[in-house]
Write a structure and sequence with these properties.
heterotrimer; A: 756 residues; alpha/beta; N-terminal domain of TfIIb; Dimethylsulfoxide Reductase, domain 2; 7-stranded mixed sheet; 6-stranded mixed β-barrel; 34% helix; 17% strand; C: 454 residues; mainly alpha; Formate dehydrogenase/DMSO reductase fold; 17 helices; 73% helix; globular; disordered C terminus
């Protein structure tokens, strides 16, 4: 065969081309490899906008800046000028976009078709869904029983909460029920008894000299976590004068304990007694504030009480903290005028911790306890007069505590509530023995859930209404920083709601309109926007507050920012550019003590009766069978029991043990060995109330004899990343509540463990 | 010679023409490139040397940096399967460590991004130049060139490089949140922290259009920006007055595995 | 004196005999390879997620196989070249077998690297954007060189045999005719061939040494604990020759049995290789001991973590199996004349191969799973895909070797023949040159020498 040069070249070319084509066929068609161009493809640079909004993943109210490209929000960053977060975000805030774009979000109203709790729903249009609720409500009113409507909410400071309260008042039901989460709130009840009957405390962390925390994992749970972290950084390396001392009292080496100068391990649920022991030493060693006797009432009985009941030895026996440590802590605390911080636990603990601040004169003081306040002009206008039905309804006996609702429903005498609206609360997941709620909701004639995800409680609802998330709605709420500044967040929606989701505020306004007078009379706004405009006008008339600077500077916004606004609308424009306005701490109308005596109440009457019963505490009996104590904590990722539906937060929750996507139980190695449990083994944890399975982890940072578990996992719903991941230790906790505060006793449940 | 279509002369002529047009093309494309870079080059007098300082005394271990990095850089979503298999991609990660015994326990969470070594052990081992140190000291990765041999990953003493074991997927509509400035990596390539290099490009563009040089704070990676405790400082280490330089001279300073001679550009400040 | 066996006829007979077991074997191997191909397609589609690899165990069985197979490749070329250069007459029947192992196994080894790549479709980037600072590129360079040299080194001595087959097997003439390159066996041709072989034999030795040195440098050039070792180069080369000889002995034993080559592969061949293997056992043990003792004595924490992981931790079973397979068992079997038999050596070679694979494995994995920083780890459990591809690699080698033996004479006919004709005379002449000057040796009597050599 003759092969000419040309034929050879041609043949080579042909072979090469064919080989290339075959290669392409195999690679891209058969094997599905991405074509090379796709690897290098960068989306073309599109114009971007920055819009301010507010993070809603916890009630702190951090300002966020949303980067919007072609109608998509592609990044959330902290709003640099916002007084709460000052440009930073916590991991929850940074994960905010996964909430907005969660693939399992509710995008349609749902009507129950199966049995209650079965989880079978059919999608319906809003036009169908609203009448279902409205007709039910009309029925109640026609029967003259508006008090049979209850609204269950979570902790929130949003406009929605204000509208709910307004709606219930206009409608005539006293049952505005708020469920507080197991962690992350401040001791409001004790503060109200001792300092300000309507107030809420703030901790001025950044200025503290000695920060003594009783079980408050403030780095993770203090509202807001961003402020807490910033304060920590400031306490450590920012302050030029002196480095604050940070002490953490907790049964577990929490993140705060790990970053503290000293960790004082304590038995679960005994924080209050340690505080009283410190108070004992403070008084004995005369380390209390000079003018305390003049400024307070109840010092005498208080001193008598701690002298008799809380000497360091007795306290040491109760708490497991050595008496020398108590002595030392007390001296440090008195000499450095410490700040004692605690969580919203039972009233005894709240009071004991708060009294330490009173003793050293650190209430209403820089570096001490401050009060939350609201700038003028923001609250909604007074409602018009109510009708008789509403008046009568409001006279009805109010349910004392939201957490008591299941017991009321299961008493069996009569169903006090007929329609239950639930918003931002998920008691079928995060409450002691949530199965009691499930049982109780089974007795409820009609449940409406307002939710952005189908959570456990929504599973038991008759009607589920899809809510918009933070970036899809107007934001209008006031917030306070820990150093006492106040701010208002006013931002328009960044993107339209996904699907048929609607903002809660809009739904309430629509509901009120649909119900007609007299309820509608209390809501003269067609939508949220005119409401905000009206408030901006009122704000303008107060002539107070400084608008936040525009989120992104341009020549236009700079010119705008230079001129003071000349009208309410002008002010609103400015507020929309920057995300809100801020007021300095000096503007706070801090009044004198708003207590019956007008002075600091060190030993409020409520305590007298409480302490008589407190002495006879339970113990003994079950301890033999359940030798360990349970300590439940909320990692920042699952603050308030929420967050497991976001994959980013699942991944970071158990970083200290490299655990994720699973519930773990921390045991001290000595305890674990006692029960023959190896690190990483599956174990059962059981109490009188239930049992859960978890991965045992040996951990030096737990008091021996304690099982520490994270709350927030073990969902039965809430989307693909939460459902059937981990176990829910809330099932282990009994339903004993603190009578005064309605707070469950989350800590110290007696449990036993064994290998699974 | 008659058998051939080309005469020697015509062949030479064509070759010459081809060479000339090639040269012209290269000249033009070079010229275009220089036009594109002109404003930036005119003002950027000297190359920067970007570095980071992480103050462990400030850090609270909150992991906002981890999440912000995920969100900024289009990293694959974590999943239980990936976690169990040890295949989570997190350019910024926190390494836990526990020391001591109860009750004198110390627990630490140390943020570890790519150390952007001045003498990176990972770049020379790449057989195809898919990872290299750029003139501003950033250790970069060319995803479209990487062959996925994972040699650089194994050569890194900080375990800071990550591999795409599978094609990353996002359930609809989560692609919407992708950062348009950052490419989504295909399966089978290595990736790593870039110090948010795309932000540097942006910052340079902005500075160039404003007709000025880069200022401190123009270029800030996402982890630093989000950090609530202000534990991260970032800047030009060759600029003696930058915050990063100043903090980097602290007596609390240390480098990760300094003894390996990799000269990391991430400095740690010890807990006081 | 027995009639000398006709090697040519024996070999051609076995090459043209296609028995039932042969087809069963080929069918079985093809099935295994087919399954491996399925696994590979699976891996290509989904990515390396289908393996047990993870962070920080980024390398696993594929790299282990790569190092192992490249090691085996030292069986052939290196041994045959050294023996050739030393003019060891007993080499004649085994060089071809050894060289064939080399060439085939190099492809299998390189193939395992391709399996390991995240983007095999971009493998050619190593030629488009080569970074010569990367030990992996050194690998690419030295392995391609070695493959080329080994193929030449296999092919050149094949030419006279191919020419023989061309003349004896008319039905395969089209094939052998092309490959024989018109060989006629003239003295001139023979001379040139021998010259070429001699040159190649010299050239191939440093290349072979470089190959495994460079393979070891892939690990040793990093700063990772228990990889970053100066003796890795020679250590790997010794290990490679060690496993190579073991593989060669196994191949010889199998071929001797199946091709009935008892007349050519005599116990003396096994005995000589067995002694070589014993030497390598000692050498390998020495290197291993040196490596571990240095680590232990230096007591650098990062290295000690890995050290204990191997000696008493999760990798202890592998380590001690390796120690038994590569040290205790072969040392005993090969030292005692009673066990230094062909079956004994087959046992020893088998354990050595197992042990050497494990050695590669515990070099690769424990260092990765204990990184310097306390990165959370989740172990390494290879998946069925890795298992299937590994099995496929072994099957591919066996299949290729089987087919090769059917197509080409697995013993060099002309070299054995040459040995018969010239070997004795050459040996005597060579011996004469060794002897001290003085009394003239008795004139070599071909016949007596022939008998003496037996």
């Amino acid at each position: 065969m003759e092969l000419t040069r040309r034929a050879f070249l041609g043949l080579t070319g042909l072979i090469a081309t064919t080989a290339g084509a075959v290669e392409d066929l195999i690679k891209y068609r058969l094997l599905g490899l991405p074509p090379p161009a796709a690897d290098e493809e960068l989306l073309p640079r599109a114009p971007e906008q920055w819009a301010p909004s507010v993070c809603q993943l916890c009630p702190a109210g951090c300002g966020v800046a949303a980067r919007v490209v072609q109608g998509r929000v592609v990044k959330l960053e902290g709003l640099p000028a916002h007084p709460v977060n000052q440009g930073a975000l916590c991991p929850r805030g940074a994960a905010g976009l996964t909430e907005l774009y969660h693939p399992d979000r509710l995008l349609q109203p749902l009507r129950r078709v199966g049995e209650r709790g079965e989880g079978r729903f059919e999608p319906v249009a809003w036009e169908e869904a609203m009448p279902l609720l409205v007709d039910r409500l009309r029925g109640l009113r026609q029967r003259g029983e508006p008090q049979r409507l209850a609204w269950l909410s979570g902790p929130s400071r949003s406009l929605g909460r204000q509208l709910i309260q307004r709606f219930l008042r206009a409608w005539g039901s006293p049952h505005d029920l708020v469920l507080s989460p197991p962690a992350g709130e401040l001791p409001a009840e004790a503060f109200r008894l001792m300092v300000d009957r309507e107030g809420e405390p703030l901790y001025d962390l950044a200025q503290a000299n000695l920060l003594l925390s009783f079980g408050l994992d403030w780095l993770q749970a203090y509202p807001s976590p961003v402020e807490a972290s910033r304060a920590y950084g400031w306490l450590r390396q920012g302050r030029s004068d002196r480095r604050a001392r940070i002490v953490q009292v907790e049964p577990r080496l929490s993140m705060t304990a790990a970053k503290s100068d000293e960790w004082i391990p304590i038995r679960p649920g005994q924080d209050g007694w340690l505080a009283l022991g410190i108070a004992h030493v403070l008084i004995r060693e005369r380390l209390i504030h000079d003018q305390l006797a003049q400024n307070s009432v109840g010092l005498e009985p208080f001193a008598r009480f701690v002298a008799s009941r809380a000497d360091p030895e007795a306290v040491a026996e109760r708490t497991g903290v050595p008496p020398e440590t108590i002595q030392r802590l007390a001296k440090e605390f008195g000499l450095r005028r410490g700040l004692a911080v605690g969580a919203r636990a039972d009233l005894m603990t709240q009071w004991a911790v708060m009294s330490l601040n009173g003793l050293v004169g650190n209430l209403d003081a820089r570096g001490g306890v401050l009060r939350r306040w609201e700038p003028p002009g923001l609250s909604l206008p007074p409602e018009p007069a109510r009708d008789d039905v509403a008046e009568r309804g409001l006279q009805a006996q109010r349910l004392a505590h939201a957490e008591r609702l299941p017991e009321h429903l299961l008493d069996g005498t009569e169903a006090p509530i007929e329609i239950l609206c639930v918003h931002q609360a998920n008691p079928c997941f995060i409450s002691p023995s949530p199965s009691r709620w499930v049982e109780a909701l089974g007795r409820m004639p009609f449940i409406v859930s307002f939710a952005s995800m189908l959570d456990e409680t929504a599973l038991h609802a008759d009607l589920v209404l899809p809510l918009a998330t933070a970036l899809e709605q107007w934001q209008f709420a006031s917030v306070c920083t820990s150093d006492g500044r106040a701010a208002v967040n006013i931002t328009p929606p960044v993107v339209p709601p996904r699907g048929a989701a609607r903002a809660l505020e809009e739904v309430i306004l629509q509901l009120a309109r649909a119900l007609g007078p007299p309820v509608a009379g209390a809501f003269p706004w067609d939508s949220v926007e005119p409401l905000v405009k009206e408030r901006a006008q009122a704000l303008y008339e107060t002539k107070s507050g400084t608008p936040l600077p525009p989120i992104r500077w341009s020549s236009e916004t700079m010119r705008e920012a230079d001129k003071p606004p000349t009208s309410g609308e002008g002010l609103l424009e400015r507020l929309r550019l920057g995300g809100g306005a801020v007021w300095p701490a000096e503007d706070a109308p801090w009044a004198e003590f708003r207590t019956p005596s007008g002075r600091l109440e060190l030993f409020p009457d409520a305590m007298t009766t409480l302490l008589e019963t407190a002495s006879a505490e339970a113990g003994g009996g079950e301890a033999q069978h359940a030798p360990l104590q349970l300590y439940l904590y909320s990692p920042l990722a699952f603050l308030a029991g929420t967050g497991a539906h976001l994959p980013f937060l699942q991944q970071i929750a158990g970083r200290h043990l490299s655990e994720a996507w699973e519930t773990w139980a921390e045991l001290h190695p000595s305890t674990a060995r006692q029960f023959g449990i190896r690190d990483g083994e599956r174990i059962w944890i059981a109490s009188l109330h239930g049992k859960v399975e978890a991965t045992a982890r040996w951990c030096e940072g737990v008091v021996p004899g304690v099982v520490a578990m994270p709350l927030g996992l073990g969902h039965l719903a809430c989307g693909r990343w939460a459902k059937d991941i981990g176990a829910n230790p809330a099932h282990l906790v009994g339903r004993r509540l603190d009578e005064q505060t309605g707070q469950p006793f989350w800590q110290g449940t007696l449990v036993k463990v064994w290998k699974a | 010679m008659e058998g051939l279509a080309y005469s020697r002369r015509s062949f030479l002529a064509r070759a010459l023409a081809a060479a000339a047009s090639l040269a012209l093309f290269r000249r033009l494309s070079k010229a275009e490139a220089s036009v594109r870079q002109a404003p930036g080059q005119a003002v950027a007098a000297r190359p920067h040397r970007w570095g980071m300082v992480i103050d462990l005394d400030r850090c609270t271990g909150c992991q906002a940096c981890v999440v912000a990095c995920w969100a900024e850089n289009n990293q694959p979503l974590p999943s239980p399967e990936a976690h169990r298999a040890g295949r989570i991609i997190e350019w910024m990660t926190l390494l836990p460590s526990t020391e001591g015994e109860y009750p004198a326990v110390r627990q630490r969470l140390m943020p570890v991004p790519c150390q952007h070594c001045d003498r990176p052990p990972c770049t020379p081992v790449c057989p195809v130049f898919a990872t290299y140190k750029n003139p501003e000291g950033l250790v970069a990765q060319i995803y479209p060139r990487c062959i996925g041999c994972r040699y650089c990953v194994n050569a890194c003493p900080y375990t800071c490089k990550f591999f795409n074991w599978s094609t990353p997927t996002w359930p609809a509509p989560m692609e919407a949140m992708h950062n348009p400035d950052v490419s989504v990596r295909p399966k089978g390539v290595t990736e790593k922290c870039t110090f948010c290099h795309h932000r540097l490009i942006r910052a340079k563009e902005q500075a160039a259009s404003d007709g000025r040089t880069l200022r401190e704070g123009d270029y800030v990676p996402a982890c630093m920006q989000v950090c609530p405790a202000r534990a991260i400082a970032f800047g030009d280490l060759d600029e003696p007055n930058s915050a990063a330089s100043q903090l980097g001279r602290s007596p609390r300073r240390s480098l990760l595995q300094e003894e390996l001679g990799t000269r990391p550009k991430v400095t740690y400040l010890a807990e006081a | 004196m027995a009639q000398p066996r006709d090697l040519e006829a024996d070999l051609i007979a076995s090459m043209t005999r296609f028995s039932r077991p042969f087809f069963l074997l080929v069918g079985f191997l093809l099935a295994v390879i087919g399954f491996a191909a399925y696994a590979w397609v699976h891996q290509l589609r989904d990515g390396l997620v289908v393996t047990g690899l993870n962070r920080p165990v980024f390398w696993g069985i594929y790299i282990t196989n790569f190092v192992f197979f490249i090691g085996i490749s030292h069986a052939g070329t290196l041994i045959s070249a050294i023996l050739r250069l030393c003019q060891a007459e007993w080499r004649r029947p085994i060089t071809r077998m050894a060289e064939t192992i080399t060439v085939l196994v190099l492809f299998i080894g390189a193939g395992n690297i391709i399996m390991d790549l995240g983007r095999p479709d971009r493998a050619l980037n190593v030629f488009l954007h080569p970074n010569f600072r990367s030990p992996l590129l050194w690998d690419v360079t030295s392995i391609t060189t070695y493959v080329t040299a080994s193929i030449c080194y296999l092919y050149l001595p094949l030419i006279p045999d191919i020419a023989l087959l061309r003349d004896r097997l008319p039905r395969r003439r089209w094939f052998y005719g092309a490959l024989a390159l018109g060989w006629r066996g003239t003295p001139n041709e023979r001379h040139r061939l021998e010259l070429a072989i001699a040159v190649l034999a010299v050239v191939v030795i440093p290349i072979a040494v470089s190959v495994h040195t460079v393979v070891s440098w892939v690990f040793a050039m990093t700063v990772q604990p228990m990889w970053h070792s100066t003796i890795f180069g020679p250590y790997f080369v010794v290990g490679a020759i060690y496993s190579g000889i073991a593989a060669l002995i196994l191949a010889m034993a199998v071929l001797r049995k199946t091709y009935r080559l008892e007349a050519y592969l005599k116990p003396v061949h096994f005995k000589n290789l067995g002694l070589l293997l014993l030497v390598m056992t000692c050498l390998w043990t020495y290197f291993t001991f040196a490596e571990y003792l240095t680590t232990f004595y230096g007591h650098e924490p990062d290295e000690m973590t890995i050290f204990w992981a191997k000696l008493s931790g999760p990798y202890a079973p592998y380590f001690w199996t390796m120690a038994a397979c590569c040290f205790a068992i072969p040392l005993v079997i090969l030292s005692l004349p009673a066990t230094r038999t062909i079956p004994g050596m087959v046992v020893a070679s088998s354990t050595i191969l197992v042990g050497m694979w494990l050695e590669r494995f515990i070099i690769v994995v424990p260092s990765l799973i204990n990184p310097r920083l306390p990165v959370p780890t989740s172990g390494y459990t290879p998946t069925w895909v890795e298992g299937a591809i590994t099995a496929g690699a072994f099957a591919a080698f066996l299949l290729l070797y089987t087919l090769f033996a059917k197509v080409f004479p697995i013993i060099s006919v002309w070299e054995v023949e040459e040995g018969r004709q010239r070997g004795i005379q050459d040996t005597v002449e060579r011996l004469t040159t060794y002897l001290p000057e003085g009394e003239a040796p008795p004139a070599p009597a071909t016949k007596t020498a022939w008998e003496w050599s037996r």
